[in-house]
Structure formats: structure tokens, C-alpha cells
Amino acid sequence: MEVHIQTRKLIKPSTPTPNHLRDLKLSWFDQITPATYGSFVFFFPADRCISTSNKDERLEKLENSLSEVLTRFYPLAGRFDLDRNAIDCSDQGAEYLEARVNANLNQFILDELDPKLLNHLVPFPNELFFSPTVLAVQINKCDCGGLAIGVNLQHKFADGYTLFTLIRRWATCCRIGADRVECLSFETGSLLPAATYTAMHKIPVPEDNSEKLVTKRFIFTATAISALKAQAIAMGGELKSQQPSRVQVLIALIWKARIAVAQAKQGSLRNSLQIFPYNFRGKTALPIPPNAAGNLFRNVIVRFTADGDRKLELKHLVNLVGKEIRHAAESFAKAEQAEDLILSATDSSREIHEEIIKGNTDICVLTSMCRFPYYEADFGWGKPAWIASAHKPLEFVLLMDTRSNGGIEAWVTLDPSNMLQFEQDPDILAYSCKPAQYFSQWSSAAVNKL
Fold first, then answer.
1. pTM
2. In contact, 41 and 118? CB cutoff 8 Å
3. Are 219 and 438 in contact (CB under 8 A)?
4. pLDDT, tens digit (0-9, with 9 covering 90-100), for 146-175
5. Residue 219 is inside which H or E element, if any?
6. Are strands 408-414 and 396-401 parallel, antiparallel or unpaired?
């Protein structure tokens, strides 16, 4: 696959940002977050009813609407000033690229191309690359006539909610105009200030192992997830009264497979931590707006201890995950001051750092983007056929909803030898399917249109 960059420019807000908004302080949670990029690609199939000239109009509308939406999302057109832990919102502009790609969308969707190639559909292929640029966008025109909109958004200021809200608001602006765009709140720097609390135990920027790792996709249909939940509940214990969510059981299933991979490699069960973020918007007594931008999450830590003859059972891991999720929810519900949230996050970070230093516990990192309405991003030519992540520089699991029918797509990045064992795990084989198998359920006409 070849990607030819045809246009590179800066898109500035259509209306200048007022002087009193030009300095945005980062919150405490932003400051402990590593300066890496979050990357996603939104795939839109060709509409065979659109003429060539109208296809060019799509690019013009995307560019103009981005400029308009940046007026409301003004920090994303700014530049980081890490020495001051702030964003200079002086309208320097978001990076904007247009590219020609000699590939068809269905080659990506059906997993015919290496997932590493997805990284070339965003402006910054390496998510660990640091730039003071907050937002960068790449519009990829494919041979099939479809578009792939690649987005890099700096994690130092934006979590998944912030990124996907931006995309949906941009899509709304492009489709029906800027007047219908709802703004995000950029108040978290004052609500959760860093000046009062020392940002200790920052989440470190991971070592770049991109070239050593492989990424594969595993799709769990709604039917498979229901069967998995039924199996876990049938095993007894607390699960009969505490109905696990589909994300909870998938976290446990994938974690179980990774523990088994480590056991096969080491010859015995090892201690393991499963870490995943918990979004606390709307879950505390603090006056944090539900539409607040920034990093508003705390890492949940679930601990598996390899005690003697303990068996590695799914029901046990589902219980552990559920208990920690409930504990996090109770902790946030009791939080009445910013200090309560910050101390809770500090404790989590300290626990992770201590285990990394000891070196006798495996660390498994996962993020769930399920239930975010990213498939609602309609720019005026229909909703995306598929949304892709990117190949990661560390061993990592990302969960995303399938486009319809309640399934979940797991993006798994592992060392090649670990991946070989992971994909042969009996439960992974039993409950997941490969993309080509899953999308074969589509009509051939629908797939060929991509």
C-alpha cells in the first residue's frame, strides 16, 4: 500500500479565539497523562451515486466545517506549552492533510492488509511521537472512491470521550451547520487544579516496541458474548446475583487468556494486574460538567494472585473485575472534593509503579471504548462503515463496539510468540471470530461497495 500526501496545511478557527480564552491550564489528571496521541480512522464507503465533482465537494466541506468547529473547540487549534502545563490557544491551527491511497476500504475491513498500515492513514503514524500540535487530521481518498478520515488527538488533553465527541460535533457541523454544534466544557483545569497537588507517579510514556509487536482483531458477536455470560453465571458464585456486563466478561476472558500465555512461558502461574480506565463523568458529587473535555478517568486495578494450587477460572476473574468496578463506582460516588479524586488516582498510580519496580507481576493494559456513540458520526454521506484503531507501541488491548448487533471488536497487540499462543487459547477460539468470517455475513454487494 502506498500513501501519497497531496495537501498539507493548517486549519485555523473560522473566528479568532478571544484573548481571555487564550491560556488554558491543564487539570491534574491531564498532567499525569503521557504526551502520546490517540489515533482512530473512520471509514466511509463510496457512494456510487455521487459524481466526481461532488466527491471533491466532500473534501471542501470537511475542511470548511473543521475550521468552523474549531471555533467552539478552540484548544484543539492551539499548541502545548509543557513547561507551563498549559495550552496556548492562539489559533495556530490543526494540522490537515489530504492523501491518495492505492487501496480499497474493504481490504482494511476484511483484514487483508497488515493493521500496521492503518498507522499511515493518520498524520502521526507513531503515537509516541511528540509534537505541540493538539489535533491533526488526514483525509485519505481510496481507489474505491471511499474516504478514510484519520485523526490524531493528543492524549495529554483528551480521553476517548473528548476525541469521539469532537468527531461527532465536526460531523454535525459538516452535515447541517455550525449552529447545531454543542460545545464541550473546558473548565477541568480549574475544577481539578494541579497547582494544589503534586502530580506524582505520572503515567510514563511507554517504550516504543512497535516494530517488535503484532496487532490482530478478534470479533465477539452478541450471541457469543451472551453464551460467555451464561457460562460464567452457570459456574456459580456471586455472578448469579451480580449480572456481569458484556465488557466485564470480555475483560475477564482476554485477561484469562493472557495469564495462560504467561503461565505457558514461565512454567507456572504468575501474579497479574489487569488495568483499565474508568470514566468518572457524572459519577461524582463534584460540579464536573457531563460534557467536560480532558482526561476524566482513573485507572482501575484488578489483581490476580497466583496462590499455590489456585485454578485459573473465568468466573473468578469475572468476579474480581466486577468487584473492582463496583468499588470504583462507590469511591467516585463518595468524592465531594477534587482532593478525593486526586488521592484515589494517586493511590492507583502508586500501586502500578510499585509492581513495575518489583518485577514479579505481569501488567496487562486494556481500554474499553464501548458504548461511545462513535458510529453516529455522519458527515452528510452516511455513518461510518467501520472505525479502526491503530497498531500500538506496547502490549495492549482495545475494546470497541461493532457497527451493529451488539458485538465487540477486540484489538490485541502482543509480542508475536505471545500472540501465537493467545489466538490458540480454547476460549478465544470458541467465542471469537476473525474479521473476514464476521463480515462475510454482509451481503457481497454491501462489501463490494466499500
1. 0.94
2. yes
3. yes
4. 999 999 999 999 999 999 999 999 999 999
5. strand 214-220
6. antiparallel
